[in-house]
Amino acid sequence: MDIFLLILSFLIMIVGIIGSIIPVLPGPLSSWLGLFIFSNITDVEVESSILIFCLIIALIIFVLDYIIPIYTSKRFGASKYGIIGASIGTLIGLFLPPFGIIFGALIGAIAGELLLNKNFDKSIKAALGVFLGLIVSGFTKALISIVFLVIYINLFLNNFSNLF
Questions:
Q1: What is the pLDDT of residue 75?
Q2: Torsions phi, psi of 17, nearest 5?
Q3: In terms of Cα–Cα distance, which of 147, 145, 159 is closest to 19?
Q4: CB-side exposure of 36: number of CA atoms within 13 Å?
Q5: φ/ψ bin of 21: left (φ > 0), alpha (ψ from -120 to 50), beta (otherwise)
Q6: Domains of the chain: which residue ranges?
Q7: pLDDT, mean of residues 121-132
Q8: Residue 16, pLDDT score
Q9: Cα–Cα distance between 105 and 79 in angstroms, integer?
Q10: Which helix (H) or strand (E) holds 163?
């Protein structure tokens, strides 16, 4: 059973990295869950302070994932309509992999802005803000998830003989 849970915890870590790119899957929170499962199924001593610190980071990133795109959108002049359009476009884009999320967000932001002010140049600028926010948010989530994976692998390799 421990081997099954060990494999499961590793797969959850991978889902966390994939979830950094695909909005439906939770990124860093999944990666933290993989660390948590690993720490509870093995005899490996994982300091609770590491788990708590990683959880806090994962929760902060989870919240920032919603704030960053809105902040960058507003900085580039997006209105509420542009942000709503980008959100709808992102949801529709989920069904059009691999780039549907990005194009959906961009097209949605442009459409939302065009509905409000009919100014194509302003709509493009707002869409660039949405795009920048998505990129920054995704990169941050991926980076944190990869750091969690490195911690996981380090714990695994340092305690390999204890695991089997």
A1: 87
A2: -70, -45
A3: 145
A4: 14
A5: alpha
A6: 2-163
A7: 85
A8: 92
A9: 14
A10: helix 160-163
